[in-house]
Amino acid sequence: MSPEYQGKTLVVWRGMALAMVLTGATASAAGARSSDGSFMSSRRFMQRDGEVIYRTVCQGCHMAAAQDAVGAGGYPALVNNPKLATAGYPVLVVVNGSKGMPPFGALLDDEQVAAVVNYVRSHFGNSYPDSISPTDVRLARP
Amino acid sequence: MAEQRKAPTSRRRLLAMIGTAAGSSAMYQAMTTLGLAAESTYKGPIRLEGDPKGASVLVLGAGVAGLVAALELHQAGYKVQVLEYNDRAGGRCWSLRGGDRFTELGGFEQTCGFDKDLYFNPGPWRIPYHHGGILNYCKRLGVSLEPFIQVNYNAYLHARDAFGGKPQRLRHILADFHGSVAELLAKAVSQDKLDQPVTAGDKELLLEALRQWGALDDNYAYKVGVLSSERRGYQRDPGGGLMDEAVPSEPLPFAEILRSRVWLRLVLGQIYEYQSTIFQPVGGMDMIARAFVREIGSLIRYNAKVTAIKQDDKHVTVTFVDARTGGAPMTATADWCLCTIPLSVLDQIDLNVGAPMMNAINAVPYGAAAKIGLQFKRRFWEEDEQIYGGITYTDLPIWQIGYPNTNYGGSGKGVLLGAYVFDSPYAYEFTALPPEDRLKKAVEYGAQIHPQYETDYENGIAVGWHRVPWVLGCFGRWTEEARKQHYKDLCEIDGRIALAGEHASNIPAWQEGAVLSSLDAISRLHQRVVAG
Known about the structure:
The structure holds two protein chains of two kinds. Chain A is mainly alpha-helical.
């Protein structure tokens, strides 16, 4: 991630100062404690594998089977989702967020974004033959 | 760090490091106020003067913003109806108690297994003294408050890779950090090694200040003795009669404190929103919601899931269905609408407002947060460790352990806040786990600080805010750019529709933001009404 990009996504809300203090641990202090890369850093996702990223991050909203979830509002299903036809679209959504969905561009590097987008586009009833590269993700970043 | 291990650390280098630390905390302070109102602008109870002439208002959402609006508009003579998705009022002003059930998006259902009178606030849990709006409603509605302990000198600061993983008492880190910094600075000052010249008179004053601040001895040394122990505590405390004499305690090596980075947390209690005095409602945060319900509960229709909000030049018509059973759509109509529905939900509702407000609604992502309450057989933190209220901070993925700020010395069970993370990968990772695994993780990490977890843990309840069906996140996470571009458009009344909530405030994620936003919105709405 480029410093410029970090700057662009700098979030200013009153809790920011607290979040900075609370996430103060360095990457080295986080250490390697988990086999799949989850719970390793308070600042960046350390998971590398697309499926692992889905299971340990995206699933929080998009559910284990990528089905929709409905309450007062809800999350769209990724199952058989035609919006995934063009890989560029999910890349943009993951990097920049969309409406209520937060941006993940500062938390995932290009390889991680590519890995998880490729995973979703080839699972959950989606079988798009093309895959996206980290370079494509880099070019998609604002 | 490796770089510093190569050679003995020079005083100048250390000072530079301290400067970095001091600069950082100064930066944190600056950032809390950056571009934002620094404090509550509450000006006392609202006065909606003038006759609303029978005008009606539909309030959407019975969270803090909606409750405030309903109460005030009702008292000002409006016909008010409130539609609420949940079967209770309060929204994020919410407490979970034994027997309460919580079903999250995706279907996991948790039943809270806490003992009677024990609770956990999944949402807000503290009220700063300067949040005058919410405090005034507590006063007006008879909500009893008690102190929320933010800084407990006997709670821990913990870093996995420092001090052999052993948690350190805050008083030790605080006293030793101040003492060591004071000693270094005093040496630099007395040897005229400061980059900035200091007048002779100021030099004397500065040395005296450093001696007092850091608990230094007459030679400006911070070392084992009564002076330092009066800050950090003794190895053996003074006793009575013929008891053994007091034994002073040994300060920690300064280099180890520096490398631990736990000094980052020393600033927390100085942040404006965390300064004493902070309050919590006695018995749970939702006592505030319950107090509102006592006043205006009859105006609220529960289990109403809003599906459309349509306005024309005379009315606003809201379509809703029963949140539990679905069924045939129903409608409610009023002259005006105050909508407090979180933007993450509102952006999915059929709504006819102009492009500026619509763009604003779509511009705010919702932050991640996870909070976990854990019940233990006994209050071991009090019995074994003399920790009465307050918070332990750690670099483990649970970030904090909050001790109950109430019922000190109680002999029964107790509930800890076992994790509170937000705006971090950890918050997403906790949310992605099934609830039972969230609990397992929280217990596993917490046991690294309190081994008593292994024997005394009983049950818990875990809330990942992106799974909460009626908010889909914790709070509106404005970026500076988005705020510049859209905030005003979000707050301006669009025809007959006004928005309110923490998301329409400069105090996001705090109940005070919801109160002020609501008061501001209904004041402007009222002006329109009385102006005819």
